[in-house]
């Protein structure tokens, strides 16, 4: 085979060289002369997985220039040169010194060159060639993703596709049968089969039942070399599960059940549960329960608990052991999701019988009625019988019953009940007008078991008796038009009675014990109403505006009651065209009923008051006009008047006259009072003083008392409080008094003419003393 490849390579090489010569124009003149050939080699092949002791021979490189004298040297470079592949430099033989693996690298690209050994010149140009690694069957098929899981519905037909499996082989699929795989089943027969070429797994048996067996472990083998002897193989496991379909009906574990239920079970509450089994799963096992017989369905109901798939039995009506001691229920369980493919398997439902045994329980007493309505007349005395309630023990023991009233802790006990008989009586007199209906609750308990209590509502109606007199509601005065004529209807009146109107109609009349009314009369309309009529005409509001009309009204009860009501009738000019009498709007003063003379007098008084007010304001304004203290606008400072005059000292009592603050009438009285003060001081001053120059206590005390009396009696004083201080020397001073006030004038040789030379201060002081001395001279 090597020689065949060499010949082919030579032929291809000669054709390529001829084409190149034509293109370049270097073709030999003799077109039939064969050109000179250079390299002689072909594409080399080497077997993988060589395990011999010697290096594997690959091929030979040879140049036409090689005469066999050893002058040509062969060189090798490229992939694996020197490490994997070696070349004999003299002969050009190539060997592989390592075992190769095609699955790792399928070919190698190398470069060959022939040079002159002595001159190192290239005898042939460098050329590229390929060494291909030839495949051998050294890799078994593999399942990279195994093991696998698959599912198929139970009861599937034969040949139903389950899963497709695929193996891989690393060997060369283009060379031989090293990578040609055939599938077979090693485990899983006779339930499943596999297609040898495609690896599709299919069911091999019909009616595989999940409830019988759910999981299957199938081992699939893949073998190369088309399954022939000597081929390599690999296997994997496919776990196949059967999915559920609704192919099983529900089944009750028993055909008969028994359940105990006490008669005290509450209506609407669960009393028991029942369950049917279904071998299917999920929605295929869902079912509903129902009670098939009418008697059981009338007393009980059943609902489905979807989570637990149970039938919950509840009580529809109260149980009574004394009436019926047992019930039988035909309960049916039916699948809700049916598959028509498996309808031939039969009805997907099951039936069982449940017997309910009713247990006797000590029950509370039962009243003969669910509620009671009784009545009693109002004003009936305490102890009046209202009615009777009856309760009895429903149990076979027939225990005695005691009665009581459930009293409202905030309300009054209006009724009482006999504990043995259940007779209800009143505890006080009732008034229908206050409360017409009373609601009470009666309790009944067994004597043997007081904890068992039952309740019943009792409604007591208070019947009416004629105990309230009728009366006429008169919220406002009735209108009498000034133009009313004799016999004209002024107003129609009706009566009101707190008692029930069933006491009869009302009768109206004027009081018989009073003289006949000259202005109005009354007509009974005999329909529980009466009309007020005008007896005369010519009513005038000016003459008399209001009239009083007493009216007596009787009811039709037993006994007959009556009352007298006084009607107020108001006379006024009425509006024209109004359906009902309406007073015409009037001025305020006219409505007050004042005459023309009274109005004129009022106006004159108002005018006189206005004139007095104007005069008073004018006088006040003139009096308030005074010369301003500040002439110029520039002199606006404080309200203080300053001057340069010096004061007269302690004796200058006339510098400011407080009488200016008083009214003129009291000025003279004030001056007289001052003269009196001077006389008192003069009298005191003329007396001999003690060596200590102190006044006697009794003298100064008298002066102070006198001042206090004057101050208390002074009604013309200033409009503010004033402080008057009176001081005197204390007694026992050895140095004597240092004050010069009110002392006798000492003897002095001072010439008065010399005072003028002592300055203005002394001159003013001198004048003050002189004036005081003149005042003291009588």
Task: State the main characteristics.
778 residues, alpha+beta, four-stranded mixed beta sheet, 40 strands, elongated, disordered N terminus, cadherin binding, cell adhesion
Strand content: 25-35%
Structural class assignment: alpha+beta
Low-confidence runs (pLDDT<50, min 5 residues)? 1-37, 676-695
Provide the helix percentage: 10-25%
Q: How would you characterize the largest beta sheet?
A: 4 strands, mixed
Overall body shape: elongated
**Gyration radius, in Å:** 74 Å
Determine the number of helices (DSSP H or I, runs of at least 4 residues): 7
First and last CA, distance: 191 Å
Q: For the residues shown, what is the average pLDDT? A: 79
Question: How many beta-strand elements?
Answer: 40
Tell me the strand order in the biggest sheet: 2-9-8-5
Keywords: Calcium, Cell adhesion, Cell membrane, Glycoprotein, Membrane, Metal-binding, Repeat, Signal, Transmembrane, Transmembrane helix
Domain Cadherin: 63-143, 144-252, 253-367, 368-472, 480-583
Transmembrane segments: 598-619
Protein name: Cadherin 18
